[in-house]
Design goal:
The complex is a heterodimer of chains A (292) and B (297). With 292 residues, chain A is α/β, with parallel strands linked by helices. Chain A is 44% helix and 10% strand. In chain A, the strands form 2 sheets. A 4-stranded parallel sheet of chain A has the order 2-1-3-6, sandwiched between helices. Chain A has a two-stranded antiparallel ribbon with strand order 4-5. The longest helix of chain A is centred in the first third of the chain and has 18 residues. In chain A, 48% of the residues are buried. By secondary structure, chain B is of the alpha+beta class. In chain B, the strands form 3 sheets. An 8-stranded mixed sheet of chain B has the order 1-2-3-8-7-6-5-4, with helices on one face. In chain B, strands 9-10-17-13-12 form a 5-stranded mixed beta barrel, surrounded by 4 helices. A 3-stranded antiparallel sheet of chain B has the order 14-16-15. At the A-B interface, helix 2 and helix 3 of A face helix 1, helix 3 and strand 16 of B.
Chain lengths: 292, 297
């Protein structure tokens, strides 16, 4: 079984995924498991992407990151990742939507020396498309086009700055492949649909990968505390800082198969044409149902 | 060598500066020159991409080059081969100048600032929060600018905390220029492939002035801006948090030298937090709200 490989200075476990693939749910599960006696606070979940804070990067490296391209930033982000890894005990969970990229000088964005492992969450791209469109407040065609474009970058605007640094995501397929095709950082591939079918087993796999104790009673409690209905209720009650701007909630449906029911047939065809090979590789059949 | 003035200092720089500068005369306080930095000698503190020791800082910028700031007077740069010089100018004028200011006992604060009739108002905030845009709104109300992005603090012979002005220019993204009604077409870009521009500012106050207000600019998800007082025990840590490139302070052994400047500024100036709506609001409107609520003219 694949395992994370922590060592001195190698403390980060990346929670990597394309957007809307269950990353926040996994963070909630880990939070509820690791701090079972604390009420779940959506704005204080394990895995907060502190590495994306522009001020943190600028302070760490002495740069004005807003005036640099994503490619130019990679060596600096790698330096920050190594700093964060050195300063934290294992495991330091960090959420990312970035692909596993390398700068022209050969520096990996996610340095092996800082990265004990990564959990890559994958979800049927038809469901991702529907949820991503909702998140972007755009139509599904826009979401599908972004998921097909190899140069998709999140949080980048040509005419203004932002408080977080851009994340080079690439297409849905290139994101999945970038993580699975590298050998420097151990990766556990986790399907959202499997998590949904048996969240306790999914969480146990994550804990096993990380080398953490997997206590069945605590896992059951964490699963109960982070059911979709619970997460929606918490978001309604106290809000969620990572929710998209506007009134719509972050936790929308949390189901599988809705994309295939509500996308137009030609949209589903387009997704298969763009991503079929990678879908098959990550365990999705032509109907989007996980094969194994 | 081109000579200019910033932060009350006369600076000679071997590289042409793309931003508008105030002319200066007399002997230079700081000299910025190229030089080999392969062997910068022993520096006890090593962190991320930089090393430091008493009065010295050496920073490696992958893809850009290295800079060495020493004794508050010398800034040396070693460019990566084939690099567009504007790239190293950015780190020289940012990190390099900040390190020299610290070495000279000035405290660089991540704040834009203007002059009001009651003294300097500094707007502190994190990268990307909208300091330069609010500065544009304050300028639109007729207030002279002191600095965009980084304002220096010092104490004069009478123990008065002063804000020290920087350059007569503001750096603004196209989106902010549009909000301020400025046309980007005639302006120089910060770099060719970035839609951020140098806006020359005519109404610039070049001399140090007493600090009246420190405003922490933040973002909230409500519809209207709000001004919230900062309690006395929170002031010192808050201002310390916004020291520009603050990690170099301890590494260069400067904490004891800088603490009185920060403490006295907190004693003498008022401090508030300005929460602006996340969706943005008109810069001049936000500026008006700030000044009206502060009671400053």
């Amino acid at each position: 079984m694949i395992r994370a490989e922590p060592a001195a200075g190698r403390t980060i476990v990346w929670l990597a995924s394309y957007p809307k693939s269950g990353n926040t749910w996994l963070r909630a599960l880990l939070s509820a498991y690791l701090a079972p006696d604390q009420p779940l606070d959506l704005d204080a979940l394990v895995g907060a992407p502190v590495q994306l804070d522009r001020q943190t990067l600028d302070d760490a490296c002495g740069i004005a990151s807003a005036e640099m391209t994503p490619a130019e930033l990679v060596p600096y982000q790698a330096i920050l990742h190594a700093e964060l890894a050195r300063a934290a005990p294992y495991p330091l969970f960090l959420k990312t939507h970035a692909a596993f990229i390398t700068s022209p000088d050969g520096t990996a964005l996610f340095p092996a020396a800082a990265s004990a492992g990564a959990i890559y969450l994958v979800r049927d791209p038809c469901d991702v498309a529907l949820s991503y469109a909702h998140h972007l407040r755009r139509d599904t065609a826009t979401a599908i086009a972004r998921m097909a474009a190899v140069d998709t970058v999140q949080d980048q605007w040509p005419d203004r700055s932002s408080a977080v640094v851009p994340q080079v995501m690439g297409s849905w397929s290139s994101s999945v492949r970038s993580w699975l095709d590298q050998a420097a950082v151990p990766v556990l591939l986790l399907r959202y649909e499997d998590m949904l079918r048996d969240p306790a087993a999914g969480l146990a796999r994550v804990l096993g990968f990380c080398g953490l104790d997997a206590d069945p009673a605590l896992i059951a409690r964490a699963v109960a505390a982070t059911s979709f209905a619970q997460l929606q209720a918490i978001e309604r009650g106290s809000g969620f800082g990572e929710a998209p701007a506007g009134a719509q909630p972050f936790f929308r449906a949390g189901t599988s198969g809705e994309g295939r029911r509500s996308l137009r047939p030609q949209e589903i065809e387009a997704i298969h044409a763009a991503h079929g090979e990678t879908m098959a590789r990550s365990g999705y059949g032509s109907t989007g149902v996980p094969i194994s | 060598m081109p000579r200019f003035s910033a932060y009350g200092l006369t600076i000679d720089c071997a590289l042409p500066l793309p931003l508008p500068c105030a002319a200066a005369a007399g002997a230079p306080d700081i000299v910025i020159t190229p030089g080999a930095l392969d062997d910068a000698g022993s520096l006890p503190v090593a962190f991320a991409n930089w090393r430091a020791g008493p009065g010295r800082l050496l920073v490696d910028f992958p893809g850009i080059g290295r800079i060495h700031a020493a004794d508050g007077t010398r800034l040396t740069y070693d460019c990566a081969p084939g690099l567009d010089p504007s790239r190293i100018v950015s780190v020289l004028m940012g990190t390099g100048l900040a390190a020299l200011l610290m070495q000279r006992g000035l405290v660089p604060v991540h704040a834009s600032s203007v002059l009001t009739e009651r003294g300097a108002v500094l707007v502190m905030g994190r990268s990307g929060v909208g300091k330069s845009t609010l500065l544009g709104g304050l300028r639109a109300l007729g207030l002279p600018m002191l600095a965009d992005d980084v304002t220096a603090l010092t104490i004069d012979g009478n123990g008065q905390a002063l804000a020290v002005p920087a350059f007569p220019a503001s750096r603004l993204w196209e989106d902010s220029l549009a909000r301020l009604g400025e046309d980007p077409a005639p302006l120089a870009r910060v770099r060719d492939d970035v839609r951020k521009y140098y806006l020359p500012v005519g109404q610039f106050h070049p001399d140090p002035v007493p600090v009246r207000w420190l405003v922490h600019l933040a973002v909230h998800n409500r519809a209207r801006p709000e001004l919230v007082p900062v309690a006395t025990p929170e002031r010192l840590p808050l201002l310390s948090r916004f020291i520009f490139r603050k990690r170099y302070v301890d590494a260069m052994g400067l904490r004891r030298a800088m603490f009185p400047v920060v403490a006295r500024t907190c004693d003498q100036a008022g401090m508030v937090r300005l929460d602006r709506p996340v969706e943005g609001c008109e810069p001049a409107e936000l500026a008006r709200f700030l000044l009206d609520t502060l009671g400053a003219p």
